[in-house]
Amino acid sequence: MKIKEIKSIGKISDIRLKAPPSKSYTHRALIAACLSEGKSKILDPLLSDDTLYTVNCLKQLGANLKQETEKDKIYFNVEGTGGNLKSPKSSLYIGNSGTTLRFLMAVSSLVDGKVIIDGDQEVRKRPVKGLEDSLKKLGVDIKSNKGCPPVTISSKGFFGGETSLEARESSQYLSALLLISPYSKSNMKINVKGQVPSSPYVEMTIDVMEKFKVEVQRKDFSEFFISESKYIGQNYTVEGDFSNSSYFMAMAAIGGFKVTIENLNRNSKQADKIFTDILEKMGCEISWSQNLLALKGGTLKGIEIDMKKSPDIVPTLAVVSAFAKGQTKIYNIETLRYKETDRLSAVSNELKKIGCSVEEGKDYMIISPGKLSGAEIETYKDHRMAMSFAVAGLFIEGIKIRDPDCVSKSYPGFWKDFSNATGGFN
Questions:
Q1: What one-character-per-residue DSSP string does 111-132 give?
Q2: Percent of the chain, pLDDT > 70?
Q3: Taking all residues of the chain, what is their mean pLDDT, rounded to a whole number?
Q4: With 123 labelled, which of 145, 163, 339, 371 sits at a CA distance of 20 to 30 A?
């Protein structure tokens, strides 16, 4: 097992960087472009393990995607399929990408034939039952391994109609249905039972659909109605990622210096944009100039906060909380148990290793800062664990990150950007 020791460097000079492209928007734009009528160009996409699994699977389903480079800028040229996909010659391998898994389950229902979706040992623990049940109600023949991958979809094309969805485990179930909804052979209606976790991700899905000229009618998050239609090819630029920028915000928050991040959309629908507001409540100074964020750290104080809508930045928030004065309670985060690992337990365990007192409940954690010290951090093959605790290592002597390369799942350039931000010390 590879181990990376983080060098504690204490004071850091003010830094400036460009936010990496959004993983979530890249997934959605690729799918809409591949299903579109006509040509699309996806500009500034994120190239990571997860998004490349999506690209490869779409190619197997008959999409024509070509990665191009012009003046050092990467983009995808896409020939739209108009929703006419083919049965792949082999199973679709999706690694440990939960997004690819759920989205491709729905996309595969457009195929006249059989599709098998499988991945690594970790993704075989990811739940899909809510989406599976909803697709069955739409006439798709689908089988899983007790509500988890591998998944086999047999279809004669997507007929759609009306379905209900239990989305408690993941908002990706709803996003998956929405992404294929224009290709229903009749109007499609989705009735959602209960609350949708991480609901801003559904807003992101609708945002992409509208950019590709499909209208979504809705009643809050309880009912969605989409007429039979098709996406129209577009030139689409992927905006910067708040999730992956959060680690540099956290560095500034803890270290008391200023970070300036380019390429962040102030009006973004991304769930993790909320992190700027959270850090401001904890004692940081925030200012915006168009799509340029400036954040200056201050004296941090603990808070109590509902993170149901933005669970992906909980590991970053938890690490920041270890350096705050007073307790921090983070609640409504049960969905963390269905991520790359049981992220709620993983964060709790590793915070305890570095000296925090943590009370872990079914859907919450209460963090009480203590005397912090170095430890070997288990990442559980979880990219967000590695990146979050790397930040802690800048201010605590002796932090070692196991399996540091797991960051390639969402942010292959993280360690390079991390080193640049710390003056080349890491």
A1: SEEEEEEE--TTGGGS--HHHH
A2: 100
A3: 96
A4: 163
Strands in 35-98 per DSSP E: 39-43, 64-70, 73-79, 92-93
* Diameter of the chain measured on Cα atoms: 61
CATH topology of domain 23-224: UDP-n-acetylglucosamine1-carboxyvinyl-transferase; Chain (3.65.10)
The catalytic site residues sit at 312
- The predicted-structure confidence for 31-47, as pLDDT tens digits, reads as follows 999 999 999 999 999 99
Tokens of 343: 């992220």
pLDDT in tens, 407-419: 999 999 999 999 9
Extended strands (E) in 63-150: 64-70, 73-79, 92-93, 112-118, 141-143
Taking CA 186 as the corner, what is the angle to CA 180 and CA 189, rounded to the nearest 5 degrees?
Answer: 65
Q: Residue with structure tokens 């034939």? A: 113
Q: Identify whether the C-beta of residue 76 lies closer than 8 Å to the C-beta of residue 87.
A: no
For range 295-318, the mean pLDDT: 97
CA distance 336 to 318: 13
CB 298 within 8 A of CB 325: no
Tens digits of residue pLDDT in 161-189: 899 999 888 999 999 999 999 998 889 99
Cβ-based neighbours of 219, under 8 Å, separated by 6 or more: none
Is the pLDDT confidence value at 10 over 80? no
- Determine contact, residues 260/294, Cβ cutoff 8 Å: yes
Residue 72 banded pLDDT, cuts 50, 70, 90: confident
**Cβ-count burial 244-262 (b if 16+ within 10 Å, e if not):** bbbbbbbbbbbbebbbbbe
List, in sequence order, every residue forming a beta bridge with 79; answer none if it has no partner: 39, 64
CATH topology of domain 3-20+240-421: UDP-n-acetylglucosamine1-carboxyvinyl-transferase; Chain (3.65.10)
